[in-house]
Amino acid sequence: MSDLSDLPCTTTDCGCDCDAPLERLRYFPRQLMTADDMRAEQHYFREKARRHNRYLHGWGVSCGCTVEAVTSSKPGAWQVRVCPGYAVAPQGDAILIDDCIDVDLQLGPQNPPCSVRWPCPPTGEMPGVDRERGTTAYIAVRYAECFSRPVRVHPSGCGCDETGCEYSRVRDSFEIKVLWELPASHRQARLDDEQWCQTVRTAPPELLKRLHTFPVPPCPPCPSDPWVVLATVRIPPPGQGNIAGGAPAALQISYEDRRVLLATQRLQVAALCLP
Known about the structure:
Helix content is 19%, strand content 26%. The chain is α+β, with helices and mostly antiparallel strands.
């Protein structure tokens, strides 16, 4: 029997119901409530919030999340620092980076926060460094969850040796990773934006006089990957990196592949600033 990790990932593996119908609990007198019922209650409201984010706001970096080069005394080491910020994942999860995280482009983040393994690992392995053009890496973040606050579980029977523990909390967290391929969700989102712009440009002028008469856009697809690209880092070819004495590496950091999600407040201010 093959390992589940060897199977191809589909949109149902992304951790959200996307367009599946949701059910909420119906309470009635003398109802017997179990842990499954409590989880179903949480699931309903979490998926409602996710769906709200995806359809009404979209996804991307909302504020902060800057990426800076870090000077390293180790020759040939390439490190960047991800600063605090807020983003929304392609599935609609809110991601809060509450502290600076140093990331080694070869080894990954240093002291990464705890996280639950994503069922679909990112594709692409670290390629060999191009001696003429260098190598491109993508610093990305995803929503993650951590189990916390373990408590003792009361024995279910009359046994005296049952001293099991269970985690009583689930903490929202994040995972930062170095990707060597631009996620498909970013390519699809860029194509969707271009198609929507083309639709608006070719729409009859009478439809563009008021916002509620604009063409109705198609619903966004349900991405199968969770990553939000924070920055694109180009590693220079060999011989152009650290020099004797630990001088800063000439990493080229840009935000050309970052997807920005502007808050309503920023959009309102921008409207006042435009001529």
